[in-house]
Amino acid sequence: MSLKVVFAGTPEFAASSLAALIESEHEIIAVYTQPDRPAGRGRKLTASPVKALALQHDIPVLQPQSLKNEDAQQELASLNADIMIVVAYGLLLPKAVLEIPALGCINVHASLLPRWRGAAPIHRSLLAGDKETGVTIMQMDVGLDTGDMLYKLSCPIHPHDTSGELHDRLAPLGAKALLKTLSLMSAQQIEPEKQDDSQACYAHKLEKQEGDIDWSQDAITIHRKIRGLSPWPIAFTLLGDSTIRVHSATVVNSFHDSAPAGSVIEITKTQILIACGENTVLALDKIQLSGGKALAVKDILNAKKELFSVGTKLGS
């Protein structure tokens, strides 16, 4: 059965679900997305990925600053949608909005709920060292990602995954789960499942300062940080008064005896090995010097080998 859909989303992750809906039998009667934002060096107002995709397919686009006022709610009600699908929209939906569509509002969430509720579930799963994540289609309620679970698909987290790589696997998985959920809803075969609140963690929004590497932590924990904060905001450390951004690294299966945490203990042609907490070792593979581009360590060493030697100390 074809459903009349209102879609609400903003970033690339949401655009994957919108693209799948466009190819489906369902009718997208309107798209909601956040207002255009300044982007790039010129700070030019730029449409969201969801808006750009909607306009390509001649779908009406609405960009209210908020859905809390009565005019915005009446405009939504006038669309007479069967369902509203929300994917990383970025605006809160008040109770009045949740009750407007005949089948309510459902959300594509990048976590196996209730594990990670909140703004940054992909990053937090990596930072925590989770071995598995996935997507959950959820019936929205007034809480923060607390509604009944309708459908799930899981996804392994590989040892070298970054947040960017995991995002790119979860986005199409979310689209697949969404279409399956709509099919089950149309056939009245959905069995909502309550969340166990005791299993929930809050995925706080990322802050740039979280990227500051604490070399007294063990190499595995630091490696998770580097992966979890790539491609944004990127883990970093200090070299004297300069900031070095660490784009990729490798946990080395060896131990050091007594080198201070954050000190260089070995330099090879392609890596800089750093002493970490609990006598563990992390090898830097790709870094970015202040004012420069991200480069493989071998290229950094070829150009500025004088910056690094055994005993050089990183961090504050």
UniProtKB/TrEMBL annotation:
InterPro entries: Fmt, Formyl_trans_C, Formyl_trans_C_sf, Formyl_transf_N, Formyl_transf_N_sf, Formyl_transferase-like_C_sf, GART_AS, Met-tRNA-FMT_C. It holds the Pfam family Formyl_trans_C. Its EC number is 2.1.2.9. Residues 4-181 form the Formyl transferase N-terminal domain. Gene3D superfamilies: Formyl transferase, C-terminal domain, Formyl transferase, N-terminal domain. It is an enzyme of class 2 (transferase). It comes from the Bacteria. (6S)-5,6,7,8-tetrahydrofolate binds at residues 111-114. NCBIfam families: fmt. Belongs to the Fmt family. Attaches a formyl group to the free amino group of methionyl-tRNA(fMet). The formyl group appears to play a dual role in the initiator identity of N-formylmethionyl-tRNA by promoting its recognition by IF2 and preventing the misappropriation of this tRNA by the elongation apparatus. This is Methionyl-tRNA formyltransferase. It comes from Neptunomonas concharum. The gene is fmt.
